[in-house]
Amino acid sequence: MKQRITLKEISKKLNVSISTVSKALSDSPEISDKTKEVIKAFAKEHNYKPNNIALSLKNQKTKNIGIIVPEIVHHFFSSIINGVERYATEKGYNVVVCLSDESFEKEVITAQMLANGSIDGFILSLAKETQEKQDFHHLNEVINQGMPIVMVDRVTDHVDSDKVIIDDTQGAFNAVNYLIEKGAKNIGLITMPDYLSVGRLRTQGYTAALENAGLPVNPDHILKLEALNGGQDEIKEFIEANNFDAVFGVTEYFAVTAMKVAQKLGMRIPEDFSVIGFTDGIISQCASPTLTTVSQHGEDIGRQAATMLINRLENEDKHIPYNTHILKTTLIHRESTK
Amino acid sequence: MKQRITLKEISKKLNVSISTVSKALSDSPEISDKTKEVIKAFAKEHNYKPNNIALSLKNQKTKNIGIIVPEIVHHFFSSIINGVERYATEKGYNVVVCLSDESFEKEVITAQMLANGSIDGFILSLAKETQEKQDFHHLNEVINQGMPIVMVDRVTDHVDSDKVIIDDTQGAFNAVNYLIEKGAKNIGLITMPDYLSVGRLRTQGYTAALENAGLPVNPDHILKLEALNGGQDEIKEFIEANNFDAVFGVTEYFAVTAMKVAQKLGMRIPEDFSVIGFTDGIISQCASPTLTTVSQHGEDIGRQAATMLINRLENEDKHIPYNTHILKTTLIHRESTK
C-alpha cells in the first residue's frame, strides 16, 4: 500500500516550517502565492491527504471529542482529562487524548489530525511553545472550518472560542495574603516566565498582595524559571541569598523543592519558613510536611469544558455566544504554613 | 443533521450488554442467530455505522497509533504514554490516548472506535474489569480485522499479539529478598486480587522469596485490596494486628500508606520497620522518608511497545511472529529500607 506523505515530511523535504506548510495548504493569505503553489504541487504529487476521513463524511457526527494537553505526567492535566472523560461518558461521547509535549509543531499536527473528521470538536490547553510564539493560526483555521474548540487554563485572546480558566491572579493573591496574615514579611516568589499566562497572572497576584499589605515589591525576590521540572540549583541559590520567612511557588514542584532546600538549610517548617504551592496534586499531599496549596479543581475545569463543548455540538443550529467560564480556586491548608 | 445511534444506545434500548451488541454486529458465533437478527435490524433501522471512516478508506494508512490505558492519573501509565509518544514522534506517527477507566464496557467501545479507521494499530493495557470478566472478544475481533495490537503490562494469554511485560515475579522476589537480607523476619504483603495478573505474579514473587529463605508463608500476612486507592483502614488494622518488621506493597500507594500508618504507630523507619513499594513514581520520590521501590521503567515499556507496533505496521508484507518482550525491573534504594 502506498504510504501517504505527512505534513511533517513535506516540511522536512521543502525545508519550511510545519506552520508554513499547514498555512499554505489551507490557503492562508499570510503565505505568498509562489510558496503556496510549490507546497500544494508537492503535496499533490506525493499523495498528501488530510488524515482519516473522506470529505463526504465530514458532516457526520462521530460522538467522539478530543483533548490536547501539553503533558500527561502532571496531576493537574490528568485531572482535567478525568473531568472531561466522566462528563463525556455520561453523555455517550468517547474521548481521545493527545499530547502536544509543549511543542508548537506537535500541537499544529495534532490539531490538524483531530480536525479531519475523527472527532466532532476538541478541548485544548496551549503548549508552552505556542504561547511563546503567539502563533494560533492552526486553531483559528479549525474554528473557521466549523469545528468547535474549548480552551482550558492556558488560553489566548487571539482565539475566539469558549474558554474555561481559573482565577490565577486571585488564587495567588489569596495565597500570599494568607502568608502575610500569618506574619510573613519577606516572601519570595518562584514563578514561570511572563509569556506563560499562568506565570504572568500569578506573579500579578503576588505583587498585588504585597502592595495591598504595604510591603515592598523587590524584583530580586522573584525567581523566574524556564524549566517546569528542575531548577533545584537556582532555587537553592535564591533561598540562600535571601532571608525569606516564606516562599510562594506557582507550581507544587517549585514549592516542594523550596521546602526541601529550606529543610536542608536547617529551617523549621512552618515555624521559621512557610511554603505555599499551586496545584493540589499528589506531590502536595505526599510531601513531608504536607504542602498548603492553591487547588485549581482540575476535574471541575475538565467537566465544565466538556459541558460547554457538548452543549455547542448538540445545539449547532442555535447561535450560542462564546463564553469564558472562570472557576475560583481554594486554598487548602496543610502543614507547611502556620 | 441526523445523529447516528451508538453501540451504547443500542445496548440500552434493547436491554442487552454492550458486549452482546458488539459480538452480534460482528457476527460472532457466540450469539444466537435470533439475537443477531434483532440487533442487526435495530442497528440498521437506527442508522448505526461504525465510527469515523468509509470502508473504502480502511486500507489507507493514517500514521496515527492509539493507546488505551486503564487510568491516567497514575505515574506508571502516564510514563508508558510518554515512552510511546516519544518513539512515535521520532518515527513520524501521531498518538491518540484513550482511557478505559478500568471499565470493560468502555474498553470495548474504545477499541471499536479506534479500530474503525482513525488509526493504524494500538497499544493496550487491560482494564481491571476486563481481567475479571476474562472476556477478550473485542480484542480478538480487532486483530482478526487485520489491525495489530500490542498489549502492555496487564496482558492475557487469551489474546494472540505482541506483548511487553515486566518481570513482576522477579521484581517482587528481589524486593522481598532484599528485606530478608537486611534482617527482616516478619514481612507483610499488601497486594491486589489474584485476577489481576500483576497482583497474582507479585504475590508469587513474595511467596517464593520467603520460601527461598526458609521463612514461613502465613496467609494472614497477606492483605488483598480491591480498591487501588484507599484502603487506609484495612492497612492500619493489618499493621496493628501483626508484628511486622517490614512490609512490601505492590503499588507505591500501598507502600506509602503502610509507611504513614507505621509512623503514626510510633515506629521508626527504617530502624523498626522497612518498606518497599512497586512503581517508581512521584509518590515514592516525594514521600518522607523517600521510598525504596521496584522501578518498572514505564517509559521503556512504552517505547518498546511502540517499536513493536510500528515495526509491524511498516512490515505488513512480512510475517513477523508474535513476540513477548520481558523487561527487567530495578530496585531503587532509598530511605525506607536499611
From TrEMBL, chains A, B:
Domain HTH lacI-type as annotated: residue spans: 5-59
Listed Pfam families: LacI, Peripla_BP_3
Presence of the UniProt keyword Transcription in the record: yes
GO molecular function, one term: DNA-binding transcription factor activity
Keyword Glycosyltransferase included in the entry's annotation: no
Gene3D superfamilies: 3.40.50.2300, lambda repressor-like DNA-binding domains
Keywords annotated in UniProt: DNA-binding, Transcription, Transcription regulation
SMART domains: HTH_LACI
SUPFAM superfamilies per record: lambda repressor-like DNA-binding domains, Periplasmic binding protein-like I
Protein name, as recorded: Transcriptional regulator
Organism field: Zhouia amylolytica AD3
